[in-house]
Every structure is written in structure tokens, then in C-alpha cells.
Backbone:
């Protein structure tokens, strides 16, 4: 009798249509949501496999197995999940669905079973740019920093920032190899890339160092690159900030006093903050990143070209007044 039923459309699918038993499947509770509904959409099941109608009682399942009704296995679940991703259905699901899927995959991953290869092939990493990436590449990505975006231009791609550390997805991503970033880790990467030709993100990279300047163990910024007025890179000690210099009851821009060849930091740095933060930022650029706001003195203790040529751009009287203004700093740097 059972063998005769195998090829007869005698059981209902979810739509109330009759199908042969071997084309129907039941879902174990571990693959269902809190309401008992299958997590995998019908259209993502293997070809010619449909869900059995919920009208059948659980007590009937052993008998249904005898006539050919399948149960969704771990292998079929992963295959169907892959189909769900390929069909673009993954991004359409609710957060609760993603959490349930992540919980299942985490248990599979940590169980020591044979499913790691299949899981690595799944495109289930939710990135901050809205894309989805394959789990095999997890070690190339990082969790974002709390309260601060990672600067551009570093080749760092991060996971969505809104995933709590207590979520199943966060735990799964960490198990897959996503890196736990820290401010120091990002800063060290910035310094490693300082010789690259690209200038993308240099302003934000400097701001990153400023924002985390008090973080324990944070590296010094004196090896950072900065942009000059023409967006060309340079170390901080080769650039100037265009401050105002008092001169005979008036003020004059430092840029008007120094030679035309003098390189000044790009104006976007001075537009990064306002109020007291701006003053703190300028002080940090000059004291920690070695950007100049006083005519430079060479490491040898001799006057720089800018300092020597400044005398030819202004009158002797004004030159002496300017030196008097800068003298508290210059006197500690000039050789006797």
C-alpha cells in the first residue's frame, strides 16, 4: 500500500493542492520561527519540493515518512538558504528572521560538524554600505567603532554598525572571523598606509587621531600625511597653518609674511571644527602633528628658508616686531 502511494498526488501542500508525498517536506521546529512557520521561503526550497500543509497533525509525521514525505535536513536547510540569498530574498526579511537564521548557523558552526564549508559560501555578512558579502571573506572585514565611523581611504570595510554585541548575528560574524576593531588598530593601519599615493580621506584620518588622542596606548600622529592647499600630501612639519599675526595694532595673515613657495595646510582642516574644538584642533595639529604656526627652525638649529626670506618681504621695523611676537618659541629652537 505504501509503495502505491509514493507516486499518487494524495497529500496537500501549503496551498491546499494535492502533491505526491516525495515532493513534500516537513520542517523541524529548529528551522521554524516562534509561530511555528518555516524560516526558509517556499520558493527557496529545492526544485519540486514544497511544504506539507499544516493541517496534518504532528502525530501523523512518522506515518507520512513511510509514504515518502521528507523532513528538512541540515543539508537541505543550507542549500535552501543559499537559494534564498541567490534570489535576493535575504535582504527583504525582518530582523527577527535574520536573528533566527544567525542563531541556527552559529550552532552549526560551533558544533564541530561538517557544515563550515557550506556556511562559508553563504553571502550573509551585512555590510555598512548596504551590500552583502560571502562569509568566506569575514576576516577581511571589521565591526565598526562605537560612535565614530572608520575613515575612508584605508581599504577597511565594516559590518553594519547597528548590530548589538548581544545579537546572534554579531556572535556569528565574530565566530566567522570578522575583526573586532579598536581605535588603536585603525590608527596603526592609517600609519602603515601613509606612503600610499592615494590622498582620499587624509583629512578624516587626521580628525580620527584627534578624536581619539586620549585613548590609552594611541600612537602619536607625527607620521601622518596632510594635504596642502593644492591637495598634495606632505608631513605636518613641512606645512603651515595660516594664523593671524599682530602687527602694530593690526593683524596680518602669516601667509602674507612668508615666501610664496611656503606650503600651507588645506583650508578643509580649518573647517573641520568650530568654537573651542577648533582651537583645540589647531593646538593639536601644531603641538602633536608638528604643523607650523611659527616660522620654522631647522633641526640643525639654523633658520629655515621661510624665516630668512621673510625679512625681504617686510620692512626691518616690521620684521623685528614679528620676531618679537614669535621669539618665545624661536629662542628655544635657534642655535646660538
Residues:
Amino acid at each position: 500500500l505504501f509503495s502505491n502511494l509514493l507516486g499518487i498526488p494524495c497529500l496537500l501542500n501549503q496551498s491546499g493542492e494535492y502533491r505526491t508525498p516525495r515532493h513534500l517536506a516537513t520542517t523541524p521546529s529548529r528551522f521554524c520561527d516562534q509561530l511555528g512557520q518555516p524560516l526558509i521561503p517556499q520558493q527557496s526550497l529545492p526544485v519540486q519540493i514544497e511544504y506539507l500543509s499544516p493541517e496534518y497533525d504532528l502525530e501523523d509525521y512518522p506515518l507520512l515518512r513511510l509514504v515518502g514525505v521528507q523532513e528538512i535536513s541540515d543539508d537541505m536547510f543550507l542549500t535552501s538558504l543559499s537559494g534564498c540569498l541567490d534570489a535576493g530574498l535575504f535582504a527583504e526579511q525582518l530582523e527577527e528572521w535574520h536573528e533566527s537564521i544567525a542563531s541556527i548557523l552559529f550552532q552549526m558552526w560551533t558544533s564541530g560538524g561538517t557544515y563550515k564549508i557550506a556556511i562559508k559560501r553563504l553571502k550573509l555578512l551585512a555590510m555598512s554600505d548596504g551590500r552583502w558579502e560571502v562569509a568566506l571573506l569575514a576576516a577581511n572585514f571589521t565591526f565598526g567603532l562605537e560612535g565614530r565611523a572608520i575613515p575612508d581611504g584605508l581599504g577597511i570595510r565594516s559590518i553594519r554598525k547597528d548590530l548589538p554585541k548581544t545579537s546572534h548575528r554579531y556572535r556569528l560574524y565574530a565566530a566567522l572571523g570578522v575583526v573586532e576593531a579598536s581605535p588603536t588598530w585603525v590608527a596603526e593601519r592609517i600609519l602603515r598606509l601613509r606612503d600610499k599615493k592615494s590622498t582620499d580621506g587624509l583629512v578624516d584620518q587626521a580628525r580620527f587621531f584627534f578624536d581619539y588622542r586620549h585613548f590609552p596606548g594611541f600612537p602619536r600622529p607625527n607620521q601622518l600625511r596632510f594635504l596642502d592647499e593644492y591637495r598634495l600630501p606632505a608631513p605636518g612639519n613641512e606645512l603651515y597653518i595660516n594664523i593671524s599675526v599682530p602687527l602694530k595694532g593690526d593683524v596680518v595673515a602669516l601667509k602674507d609674511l612668508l615666501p610664496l613657495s611656503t606650503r600651507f595646510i588645506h583650508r578643509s582642516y580649518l573647517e573641520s571644527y568650530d568654537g573651542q574644538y577648533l582651537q583645540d584642533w589647531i593646538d593639536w595639529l601644531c603641538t602633536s602633528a608638528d604643523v607650523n604656526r611659527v616660522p620654522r627652525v631647522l633641526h640643525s638649529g639654523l633658520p629655515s628658508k621661510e624665516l630668512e626670506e621673510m625679512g625681504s618681504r617686510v620692512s626691518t621695523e616690521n620684521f623685528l616686531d614679528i620676531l618679537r611676537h614669535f621669539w618665545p618659541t624661536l629662542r628655544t629652537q635657534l642655535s646660538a
